Amino acid sequence: MKKDLISIKDLSSQEINEVFSLTDKLKKSRDCPRRGLSLGFKNDFSKALKGKTLALIFQKPSNRTRVSFEVGMYQLGGNSIYLSPGEINLGVRESIKDAAKTLSRFIDAIVLRTFEHKDCLEMAKVSDAPVINGLSDFSHPCQALADLYTIKEKFSRPSGIPQKAGKSLKNITLAYVGDGNNVCNSLLFTCAKLGVNMNVGAPKGYEPEETVLKYSQELAGKNGASIKLFNNAFDAVSGADVIYTDVWVSMGQEEEANIRKEIFKDFQVNLDLVKSANKNALIMHCLPAHRGEEITDDVIDSKNSIVFDQAENRLHVEKAVLIKLLGS
Ligand code: CP
User: Fold this and answer.
1) pLDDT at residue 168 in the model
2) 182-194 vs 141-156: helix axis angle to the nearest 10?
3) Is 276 contained in some domain?
């Protein structure tokens, strides 16, 4: 039976940990091109998806999601086809059902970046090929998987950031500061499944959905962690090992830009806020960043910022997801 990746809520903690284990192997098996060398590890994944094709249907712009999936398919011996908004024009030129049924005759999986989460759910329901959510208004599962993988990596690798070595995911506190959006929802699900403490600091009226928060708080409790909501950024980062933020104005919210910038101004991740967290707290951002709005240059460019490691891990984690969903 085919399996999709639409929301982290649908994954078990075991499945998440399996993705992380495979990501470790993938990262070791092929030193990334930037570093130049192949280290000759015994696992060779270069033909893992030979003959397989991934369709990327994107209704919004993208750097990380598109490029990491395309490069990932290439590195696994497969192929990808990018379909921009004008090409399929989902729901206008062609229904989601007809597009999915047709594509399923040609390709092996679909990454869908869409405005409305219901489109992802419908695509997954009608497609014969696995569907991966490449961002919807509710969820960004690939981002959250890469984020928690990055945190795990930073806190467990002795050669990483020294003061962090030895802490496991179970005794880390992640503070998410800003809009209770799709990224926040996916982080909540992932932290709850893995037993990671999470604080959310969001203005009143911009908190994550009540149902997501309640579900995550209950599950986190069962997994020995706590998830707390604050309407103040300083309270949210108190005791945090990691501070995470995202843009205040997401794609499609441009008309609300001025009002949002006013509402979120006390939720900026700046040096004052960082000083209120644990010493040497790591800084994360899913990118793209609006420098000078939700995060200042001196924080995103600081020595404790791991935003580009986080971005790189999109590639490694998504390769693991692709193998899990498409590998024979
Ligand atoms: N973080 C993220 O999804 O980046 P893109 O919008 O560039 O894909």
Assistant:
1) 78
2) 50
3) yes
Check residue 36 and give its pLDDT. Answer: 45
What is the number of structural domains in the chain?
2
133 and 188 inside one domain = no
pLDDT (mean) for 114-140: 97
**Does 145 reside within a domain?**
no
Q: Looking at 30, 66, 113, 117, which residue is catalytic?
A: 113
Examine the residue annotation and report whether 310 is marked as an active-site residue of this protein.
no
Residue 313 Cβ contacting ligand 1 at under 6 Å = no
Task: Give the domain CATH number at 197.
Answer: 3.40.50.1370
174 and 76 both lie in a single domain:
no
> Has residue 146 been placed in a domain?
no
Half-sphere exposure of 66 (CA within 13 A, CB side): 14
d(CA 143, CA 159): 24
Residues 45-54: tens digit of each pLDDT: 999 999 999 9
Tokens of 176: 């998410």
φ, ψ of residue 198 to 5 degrees: the values are: -140, 130
In a domain, 3, yes or no: no
pLDDT tens, position by position, 100-124 = 999 999 999 999 999 999 999 999 9
β 53-58/79-83 pair status: parallel
**C-alpha 307 to ligand 1 mean position (Å):** 12
Of all residues in the chain, the percent with pLDDT exceeding 90 is: 86
Among 30, 117, 140, 260, the active-site one is 140
Domain residues for the domain of 39 are 8-139+313-326
